[in-house]
Design a protein that fits this description.
Blueprint: H1 3-19, H2 32-45, H3 48-55, H4 59-73, E1 78-81, E2 84-87, H5 89-113, E3 120-127, H6 129-139, H7 141-146, E4 149-156, H8 159-167, E5 173-177, E6 185-191, E7 195-200, E8 220-221, H9 229-240, E9 246-247, H10 254-262, E10 268-271, H11 272-275, E11 283-287, E12 296-301, H12 308-324
Helix pairs in contact: 1-2, 2-3, 2-5, 3-4
């Protein structure tokens, strides 16, 4: 921030203190932002004359503020040595602490005055592996191109861990698998993708237009591990046909299931969003007739509003889904 803007903020804070003159500075001691202007200026400049120039005030006005502060607080903030003001230990401590609040104000003012304010900043998000390792890189491409000054941090976590991070405001937004909920999180559905069957190139099922659950009876199936919603749904579908799925390998991630299919070790049922990138990696991706109840959603902190850049990012992801996946 420019020195001129610092001065304007300092003068504004001093104006607030002047307006509040009916209350003593001792009453304001718990309001570090209010007392930070004169203390920080004098500590950093070393004299009331230079502080006055910095704050856009007269030298007597700065001196009066410092003297009044010392009087109301009941102790000295500066030692007068050879015409200079030397800060005491308590003044240095106050300076260090109130600078944190002052810096916060500077950031807000900078953002407000930045003509490209919405196009700068940092976005922190979490996503389940089935999205962060497949769909997300492509979906983010347009956003990264249009907002080159926004930095992004991506945490790959389970849905439950992602929700905890959102609730604790450790991330701005998360992409999670449904159904899931948390009292500290608000949800916004992204998509309910269709189920697809992923089979190796040359597999006998690759000739079919649509895969039915009956087609998978006797096939080496690679499902998610027990406890996963899709595993429960798959077992329901097989039970309805009077069969058990033939399972030799199970995994905790959709990505791993697809990689195992690439190696010719079986077939799997996943959602079309995750399967998209595997079409060019040695597998066939075919529509699956039955519903698997897949759904993804954005998770936002319930206790604070989303930033503008977060909402813009979400809109880009939704647009990508609309343009690349049929409803």
């Amino acid at each position: 921030m420019s020195k001129q803007l610092r001065s304007k903020i300092g003068a504004l804070l001093l104006g607030v203190m002047a307006f509040s003159s009916m209350a003593s500075f001792a009453d304001m001691a718990v309001q570090p932002v209010l007392i930070s202007a004169p203390i920080n200026a004098v500590v950093e400049e070393g004299s009331t004359t230079r502080s006055a120039v910095r704050l856009g005030l007269s030298q007597p006005a700065v001196s009066r503020n410092v003297n009044q502060l010392e009087q109301d607080l009941g102790f000295s903030l500066f030692d007068r040595v050879g015409g200079r003001l030397v800060p005491t230990d308590i003044a240095l401590r106050l300076h260090a602490e109130t600078r944190k609040a002052f810096d916060g104000i500077e950031k807000v003012v900078d953002a407000a005055r930045n003509k490209e304010g919405l196009q700068t900043g940092k976005l922190v998000l979490a996503a389940v592996p089935s999205l962060s390792l497949s769909f997300l890189p492509e979906a983010m491409e347009a956003f990264i191109r249009d907002f080159p000054d926004v930095s992004i941090s991506i945490e790959t976590r389970t849905s439950r861990m992602s929700m905890e991070m959102v609730a604790g405001t450790k991330v701005d937004v998360a992409l999670v698998s449904m159904p899931i909920s948390h009292p500290g999180v608000t949800m916004e559905i992204l998509e309910a993708p269709r189920a697809v069957c992923v089979v190796p190139k040359g597999h006998k099922l690759a000739k079919k237009d649509v895969i039915d659950i009956k087609d998978l009876i006797g096939e080496n199936l690679i499902p998610m591990m027990r406890g996963h919603n899709s595993r429960h749904r798959l077992e329901e579908l097989f039970a309805a046909e009077g069969h058990f799925p033939n399972i030799r390998i199970e995994t905790s991630t959709i990505e791993m299931a697809c990689v195992l299919v690439e190696q010719g070790l079986g077939v799997t049922i996943v959602n079309e969003i995750t399967a998209r990138r595997h079409r060019k990696l040695g597998v066939e991706v075919l529509p699956f007739r039955q519903s698997m109840n897949y759904a993804y959603a954005f998770a936002f902190p319930a206790k604070k509003p989303s930033s503008e850049i977060t909402r813009i990012f979400v809109s880009y992801i939704k647009k990508y889904v609309r343009e690349n996946f049929e409803p």
